[in-house]
Write a structure and sequence with these properties.
Pfam families: DUF2934. By secondary structure, this protein is mainly alpha-helical. The protein has one domain. The chain contains three helices and no strands. The protein is elongated and about 40 Å long. It starts with a helix and ends with a helix.
């Protein structure tokens, strides 16, 4: 029984290190909006801004994972 509790603790730690989908989406959304503002609020580049924001945020999380391993 103690072994099961240990497994749950390890699982919780692993889960807490990973961002959840809502957190990722929020960070990407905020950065995409920042990119939109930096481009003088020029419309028509929403997909470009989103893809760039997504790339940066995911890259940041991957870099964090590499430094922890």
């Amino acid at each position: 029984m103690a072994h099961k509790n240990h497994d749950k603790t390890v699982d919780k730690k692993t889960e807490s290190e990973r961002p959840d989908q809502d957190q990722l989406r929020e960070e990407i959304q905020q950065l995409a909006y920042t990119l939109f503002c930096q481009c003088s609020y020029e419309h028509g580049h929403d997909i470009e801004h989103w893809v760039e924001a997504e790339r940066r945020v995911l890259e940041r999380y991957q870099a964090r994972r590499k430094t922890r391993v």
